[in-house]
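seq as requested:
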Amino acid sequence: MSVSWDELNPDIRLLESKVSLIFTNFVLHYIQNKTKLLHIFSRLLSTEGSIHANIIILPDLNKKLSPDDRKDYYLSVDQQIQQWKEALDANGLTAQEFEIVDDVWHQSRQEIIDFLQVLIHDFRPFFASGDQFEAQSKHMSDIVFDAYVNPGIDEPNPNAWKKFMANDTITRVVLHFKILRLIANK
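struct tokens:
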């Protein structure tokens, strides 16, 4: 769904204006160009069709970085929300529900050790290329862990992951997520 309409599989294009429901759960944050994505969804939807989606809004990594280390490509929560609103408007879709909810996920020590690379990979769409992401991702463990575990603390902990890994007595962590619950109609 991250390609242009003409690049889609012909079988998918045959569904133009015939789809009554598009449901997606926690994957749309991987697609950088929200306007292009919703253009495809709009073309697929029938006149009364709707989109039901739960979308992860990624934490603002720039809040956890020193001013010298901040990147333009890390979008704030507000910027990500605005992208979704603009993409809906640009494609003639009306939000019936557009709600940002806070969610927490409890993880055991081993679960977060296994899951951290997934959280880091969530930021892949912000990078201009896979090479740029690969070069930066090796250094993102502390910042991403800190952003999910301590979202309300403005003072960054540049060694959050290293400290967690060094302290075997920490057996559980709580991850904080912002979720966009979206229902949109054509």
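Strands lie at 19-25, 45-57, 94-108, 172-185.
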